[in-house]
Structure formats: C-alpha cells, structure tokens
Specification:
Length: 148
C-alpha cells in the first residue's frame, strides 16, 4: 500500500507516544495532534473549543493561506483531534466537549488512536488499515445495500 510521508510520520509519532506513555487527550502538546506536531500546542489557537472542527479567525487565516503543519491543514488537524477525542469516549457537540471519567487507560487511548489512524487514512484517500472486516469476510448490511 502506498502511503504519504505525512501519514507515515504521523503514525510513527503516535506509535511512539502510545508506547512511551506520552499520549494525553487533556494536554494539547501530548494529544494526537500535539504529538503529530512534535509536542507543540500552538494548533489549539485555531479553534475556540477543545474538540471542535470549526476553525476560528486564526485558523481560517492559516487555512485560507494554504498553510500546512507537518503536512496537515488546520481543518485536517481539527478533524484528527476530534476523531481522537471521540475514540477516547469524549462527547462532542457544537458548544461542548464533555470528557469521560477515565481517559488515560491504555485501552481507551488505543481506541482513540484507532479512530485517528482511520481518519488519517480517509484524509489521504487510502484504504482504512484499521478495518478488519475483509479479514473476516464481513460486509455490513449498509454496504450490501449500496452495491445494488
């Protein structure tokens, strides 16, 4: 499978963070995006709310100027972070981000990372490497219905 250099770098950084226990959804320099951006937290100024996929003025300026951060646009970074939080059990809404009681458990962080990798695959238009349905020869009813 051909992958982009940004995808490879992001997955390598997330793998390292997971195994070095430097992955924390409550720390903007140690969350999924914080790790992808080499432990920098400046990305948090591109939105007004943790977990939001809506760019604020600063984010829109960077987006409209075509800026990339380790290969990702501001909007893509917000999508990655929202996927991570959702996978970690956060409830995200238009005006809120509710964190779960337990979010630092390895199994929960793994779920978050699985969502991130699926999102990274989607952003790079490659097959979702986290999807194991082909391994079990499984197709959802929804997939079957769209084939006809």
């Amino acid at each position: 499978m051909n992958t982009s250099s940004r995808f490879d770098a992001a997955v390598e950084k997330l793998y390292t963070a997971f195994h070095n226990n430097t992955l924390n959804p409550e720390d903007c320099s140690q969350c999924a995006v914080g790790n992808i951006l080499d432990h920098k937290d400046s990305w948090k100024h591109m939105t007004d709310m943790h977990g939001s996929v809506k760019l604020n003025y600063v984010g829109l300026v960077h987006q409209n100027l075509g800026r990339r951060f380790n290969g990702y646009s501001p909007l893509e970074l917000l999508q990655i972070e929202a996927a991570f939080l959702k996978g970690c059990g956060y409830r995200l809404g238009k005006n809120f981000c509710h964190k779960p009681d337990y979010f630092n458990d390895k199994a929960i962080l793994f779920n978050g990372l699985s969502e991130v990798v699926s999102t990274l695959c989607e952003l790079d238009h490659i097959k979702d490497i986290m999807d194991c349905s082909s391994l079990f020869r499984f197709q959802s009813q929804q997939t079957l219905e769209t084939q006809y």
